[in-house]
Queue: 2 jobs
Job 1
Amino acid sequence: MSEPASYVISACREHDVKFVRLWFTDITGTLKSLQITVGELEKALDEGMGFDGSSIEGFARIHESDMLARPDPATFQLVPWRPREQGVARMFCDIHLPDGQPFAGDPRGVLRRQLERARALGYTFYVSPELEYFYFRDDRAAEPLDRGGYFDQIADEGSDLRRDTVLTLSAMGIEVESSHHEVAHGQHEIALRYTDALTMADNAMTYRAVVKEIAAANGVYASFMPKPLPDQDGSGMHVHQSLFAGERNVFFDAAAEYHLSALARGYVAGLLEHARALTLVTNQWVNSYKRLRPGFDAPVYLSWGRRNRSDLVRIPQYSPGDETHTRVEYRSPDPACNPYFAFAVMLAAGLDGIERERPLPPPVEENVFEMTDGERAARGIATLPGTLGEAIEAASASALVRAALGDHVFETLLESKRVEWERYQRHVSDFELAEYLPRL
């Protein structure tokens, strides 16, 4: 048995762990869990645990359903919201086929492949996402827990929930950078501290689970739905990202304009070039496109700048000239995405821009929302897809997205989203009934 696996066994004995949850993710980013007793742990670590992949969205057809969940000992953590006596732990799993081959549809595997590509070029990919979410009084109606606004303190009824969430994340080894009330009523944000992208994708999945568990324990419902309130801002997941070569941030150049290296400029150019195709992955739900509308602080236009929050890509200026803090912020993703896929396609787009030495257009420091269509056209500023249907069309034509996700995930994701889009198009909404039934 390997040293990490031996550590897991001894940690379970030390902390009186009786159950271990084996976590993994389906193609939509939904967390799945297989619970085993500690008596099965050694077998799980050595051989993996079998399960029916045909019952997991995007995994396998019924005649090829057998799969193995192989726990990653490096992700072992106690589950703090369960009792300490006869406690519960969790580990994330890599999914394999019965012959031991990695499963092509495993989200962790998809991200790993892109990280290996970056590593072959000498880079480590670091990310820090800001995941926004809402507290509602229950899951039956979108009634916000509070009527606070950005950074409010007195009207912030969710502050204790956020505090307990941060403490729980900390107990699980997940570092938090900041937390605060967001712009919309009942909306909150907890920003996770920079780390490598695979660890961060695991952390983002844990974060979403912890937010919901703490809320439920306090009789409140937490939602990562991108746009639950029609006249309030939606929830985003701004992703700060950078590439390092050893200890050196390769996005930084002290002598360059904005301190952005040629590599960073190529990376941003790649993001902008492929942004329309990436959107199906970073904003995968019909509801995602209710958030991506002008007037609600969510980016719509393909532009970049420094302090300008109407741009799709922003170069934060909190510490100008500081190598460590030089980074790129991609602002369109929402917190209901699959973080493994989102990080993978963003990295793929950025590396493509670097490798092809794509030129970066001039920055846009004006408010893009306030420009006329003619002014945007004159500046060559295109738009993100406006509907899930447009996003499907853009992604389906992208060789880069196919290569980043792999054929299995690419085809399965497109099939799933086409079904969702067709169902949405057939649906007759309350708005339509109220607007048209009485007069048509």
Job 2
Amino acid sequence: MRRVPLWVWLLGLGAIALSLRLAGLGRIHGLVFDEVYYVPFALDYLQGTPSFDAHPPLAKYLIALGIWLGQWPAAWLGWPTVEVESTLVSPLTFRWLNAVVGAIIPVLLADLAFSLSHRYLPQRQRAFALLAGLLMTMEGLTLVESRLALINIYGLALGLLGQWAWVRAGQAQHPARWRWAAGIALGAAINVKWNWAGLWLGLLLWEVFANDMEGPLPKSLSPGERDFDVPSGSPSPLGRRGWGMRGNPWCRRATYLGVIPLATYILLWLPHLALTGESLVGIHRQLWSTHQAIATGSSHNYCSPWHSWPLMVRPVAYFYERAGQGATATATTIHAMGNPVLWWLGTAAVLALGLGWLSRQVAGENHWAGSPSGAVVPFILLNYLTNWLPWALVSRCTFLYHAMGMAAVSTLGLAWLMAQWWQNPRDRPLALMLLGAIALSFWFWLPLYLGTPLSLEALHRRWLLPGWI
């Protein structure tokens, strides 16, 4: 494996992820779940008459771009169409761009893992990156979201892109360019949905927390961290030497993680405002009042409270169709749910990392200061919490797809632990066993992600918990 360049492995993972997203992409011929909102919104932009939506506009711009780019191959190849607000449009045209963006996410997570662990020996760094990408390829919720014209996949992709660019800046010769890219990507993620600010907040807190913990490398390391040696003069975990701007570091943080994301967020509103003639302040007042009304007056059969997300108690049924009668009856369903084994192991991994960190703080041990784990573990814990705990303040009906950011971070946490086990010959069988269990789980629930017809008996076998129906 070490003889094959990392980029070749990542290209292969991206190809597998794209194949899963394109397979039978137009099988469901019609609008599914919230496509009934977002596809008409996108068509309205193409027609120059945008309608009001409770979320910022960037994702609808991108769906509209996919429709516009896809109309020529759709006409040339004769793709089947569906009527949406008196317009004939092929489902493939409004879904293909989501599929491409979704296929990039495993590669982004792998690159993020690689950059976070850059102080480790190359074999540990490669193992962490490859496991993060491979596990994310087998994550079910992001697979479902990227096979439909929904908007969350864009927020996750842009948020991870921003985090990767920020971490990568610490190892770059020209860090300012990477930090600019990070600020733009994070501002764009928030322009998809406000809740993607969780990835921005996690990065901001990590930057402050890990910089404060930074110090000289300890003389002795715990057994779990003896698989790396850091050469003298190596850069800090965060690359603090290369901010790319002079002056107070807090001023630089405010610029890169404050001014640039805010400016990007505002600029992305301009096409919408130009078409509608509204003001930025006015549209945000309308958005706020709409969310307040949703919070007090809405309910849904598939609502799931934030505290149930780590155990995936209540997924969301996006589509259900039954065909035939009796013993030959089949059902086609699309369920927005994660890979159960991966989801639960990811939750356990974050819990283990959190308890390990807490026990060391209580015992007065701070051996992570100055070590690679001083960057990686806080990154995982802080991003998990910022993408989860703020939802405790939300009184409206929430859904499992709001946990997509949390699920990506927990996958990163599991990959971190499995990479450590993989490097230890005694623990490698455990890593292989978990990887096999995750792969089998993905294969077993794959028909629910792809919308493949199943017999009723086979479908019922996949309802492990009562709330999954």
